Amino acid sequence: MRIPTSQIYDRGLNSVLDAQRKLLHVQNQIASETRILTPADDPVGKAQTLGLDDKISQNEQFQRNSNLLKNRLQRTDSIYSSITIGLDRARMLMIQSGNGVYDDQDHRALAAELSGIRDEMESLMNSQDENGDYLFSGFQKRTEPFSKDPVTGTYNYNGDDGRNQVQLSPALRVTSVEPGSSAFQNVEANRTIKFSDSTGSVTGIDARVTDRAAFDAFHGGQYNKTQAPDLNELRFDFDGTNINVHRINAPGDPLVAGPIPYSPGEPLKFNGIEIEFSGNFAAGDSVEVRLSEPTQNVLTTLDTFIDALEKGGLSGDMFEEQLTNALENMDRAQERLSSVRAQTGGRLNVLENSFKNNMDLEISNRDTRSKISDVDYSEAMTELTKQDIMLQAAQATFTRITRLSLFDFIR
Questions:
Q1: Residues 89-147: tens digit of each pLDDT
Q2: Does residue 399 surpass a pLDDT of 70?
Q3: Residue 134: count of CB within 10 angstroms of its CB
């Protein structure tokens, strides 16, 4: 059988190239540390590897989320701790102010320290993260959460009730920070009234609740939560003999109490509250007062008590009323803050458990992927040696066969 020279060369070359291809394939497996270079090498294994790669990548993102959330929770817990220290110090100063031997000068000294605590706490409540976002504004992260209303003298919350959540696993989302409305703002407060305006010479009032249940019931019936806080007002009209109490900023300014007999210079008593007017409440004059909000910021509690200390001249009963209200409001604020800190601690525990579970899952996924796709170096080196020998054999055979021509015999 006659074999053409061209066919001899083609077959020889193909054998050498095939041996080179197999040798190069083994070299690439060793270099890339995987036995599956293309889906053709192992279709099922390649599909499993791709699925495991996705899970590992997703798990790495969850771990990054965990680290970011941990940093945020620890930052807020540190803020809560600083505010708690401030509240404890403020409460101690309030109790100290009740010392009967303290005069107005001593009270003003305490007020100065309480003002510093209030300002520090306001700064902490308006804390920002490393990106300049406000921590306690809910979803309104570019809005400063707390500011003082110059009209009502209370501290308002400017954010919303949104709770940012971070995903730590396919089925687990954890809240990062409680909004300021929950942590600091909507704390139940003792209800009272504050001076707003007058048409005569009355310049202010001192109010003392003598029957908490009666006044809370009256306050609850008159306070309209759908109105702005500065519109929840009462007007006292004095005709020289009696005082009539009207709910203003309501249709028709309805009469809500009275007529109540009143003698100038004496306290006015009605519906569980006693009011002393500063200045001469003359016939024909009117005094407007503002109903306090049912809930308030702890900063407002501090601010109100600071005003009482700075004002001075309060009777013993009136000052005791201010002190009692302040202490009870502080206690509620501390209880709320303790509750929020407990939630933060619980979230840190959930985060730690999730982080450990994700680590275990990542180790398992990587181990499974390794068993499916990683190259066996001992087997690969044996195959490399084998393919190298086969290439050398193909090259040597090709050289010998190419010499089997008539011209070699003619020589």
A1: 999 998 888 887 778 888 889 889 999 999 999 999 999 888 888 989 888 888 999 98
A2: no
A3: 22
Helices and strands, number each (H, E), in the chain? 9, 14
> Which amino acid appears at position 64 of this protein?
R
Is residue 219 within 8 A of residue 282, CB to CB? The reply is no
Tens of pLDDT, residue by residue over 243-293, are: 899 988 888 888 888 788 988 888 888 888 888 888 888 888 888 888 888
Distance of CA 128 to the CA centre of its chain: 11
Say what the pLDDT of residue 381 is: 67
Look at residues 209, 320, 224, 204 and name the one whose alpha carbon lies nearest to residue 271: 209
Helical axes 43-97 vs 298-311, angle rounded to 10°: 20
CA 244 – CA 263 distance, rounded (Å): 13
What is the pLDDT at residue 398? 62
| Residues 271, 289 contacting (CB under 8 angstroms) | no
Q: CB neighbours of 195 closer than 8 A, spacing ≥ 6?
A: 202, 203, 204, 205, 287, 289, 290
**Contacts of residue 366, Cβ cutoff 8 Å, sequence gap at least 6:** 52, 56
Structure letter (DSSP) for residue 184: I
If pLDDT is split at 50, 70 and 90, which confidence band does 44 have? low
CB 271 within 8 A of CB 215: yes
Nearest to 357 by CA among 111, 211, 168: 168
d(CA 290, CA 78) in angstroms, rounded, equals 37
Rg (CA), the chain: 41
Instruction: Provide CB contacts within 8 A for 239, sequence distance 6+.
Output: 259, 283, 284
Q: Are strands 165-169 and 233-238 parallel, antiparallel or unpaired?
A: unpaired
